[in-house]
Amino acid sequence: MTSTEEGNTDTNQWTAKERRVHEYWMREAIKEARKAEKLREVPIGAVVVYQNQIVGRGHNLRETSHNATTHAEMLAIQEANHTLDNWRLADCDLYVTLEPCPMCSGAMILSRIRHVYFGAYDQKGGTAGTLMNLLTDSRFNHQVEVTGGVLLDDTKALLQNFFKQLRAEKKAMKKAKRAIENEDKG
Ligand SMILES: [Zn+2]
Questions:
Q1: Is 92 annotated as a binding residue?
Q2: Which domain holds residue 133?
Q3: Distance of CA 7 to CAs 35, 104, 108, 181, Å?
Q4: How far is the CA of 140 from the centre of ligand 1 (A)?
Q5: pLDDT, tens digit, for every residue of 109-157?
Q6: Do the domain assignments include residue 2?
Q7: Per-residue confidence (pLDDT) for residue 184, from 0 to 100
Q8: Which helix (H) or strand (E) covers residue 116, if one does?
Q9: Is 4 domain-assigned?
Q10: Which of 5-9, 134-138, 178-182 is predicted with the least confidence, judged by mean pLDDT?
Q11: What's the number of CA atoms in the CB half-sphere (13 Å) around residue 136?
């Protein structure tokens, strides 16, 4: 398990009420991830919360949009900017099902997000504590507080199930292809 020097990734220190609130918003992010899944996109979802209201939602649309920058967090931030008529998302918190990448971490710093809560850790691309922590680096002019592992089992399962299904489909496809080839031979 990854942790940062700041020590604020520890969801175990939450009160029951805090847990209820944060898990509620993470479930909203999971709902967004499910929308991506329906489009056969890698299921990642995000919401931006301001004063107990969702002001931005987003889910990964990389395949649908043919655009490498259409990550869930980017879309949620853009919508929040639009909703609040402000590039500055002070006092806004962002919930995302997977640890943010460098691009999204950058967007969070630029938009002055207050706190990011993420679910699963990303061993290959996470820059909110796994590979590095861009969000709390004091050399930037803004730091974003980070809490990882919110609804960890659910957010992990979301991705694991998706890739498992993908592998099964690929395998079935190969099998079907082989069957057709053998038929041709016969
Ligand atoms: Zn990203």
A1: no
A2: 11-184
A3: 33, 22, 20, 58
A4: 19
A5: 999 999 999 999 999 999 999 999 999 999 999 999 999 999 999 999 9
A6: no
A7: 79
A8: strand 115-120
A9: no
A10: 5-9
A11: 17
User: Could you give the residue numbers annotated as active site?
Assistant: 73
Q: CATH number of the domain that 103 lies in?
A: 3.40.140.10
8 closest CA partner among 75, 107, 93: 93
The CA 71 to ligand 1 mean position distance, Å, reads 5
Structural domain tally of the chain?
1
In a domain, residue 6? The reply is no
Residue 101 is labelled as binding a ligand: yes
Ion ligand 1 residues within 5 Å by Cβ:
71, 101, 103-104
Helix 72-84 with 102-110: angle, nearest 10 deg = 20
Kindly give the distance from the C-alpha atom of residue 136 to the centroid of ligand 1, in angstroms, as a whole number: 17
Q: Considering the domain boundaries, does residue 1 fall inside one?
A: no
Interval between CA 60 and ligand 1 midpoint (Å): 9
Element (H, E) at 97: strand 92-98
pTM of the model: 0.91
Question: What are 24-69's pLDDT values in tens digits?
Answer: 999 999 999 999 999 999 999 999 999 999 999 999 999 999 999 9
What pLDDT shows up at residue 22?
Answer: 97
Is 66 marked within a binding site? Answer: no
Q: What pLDDT is recorded for position 5?
A: 38
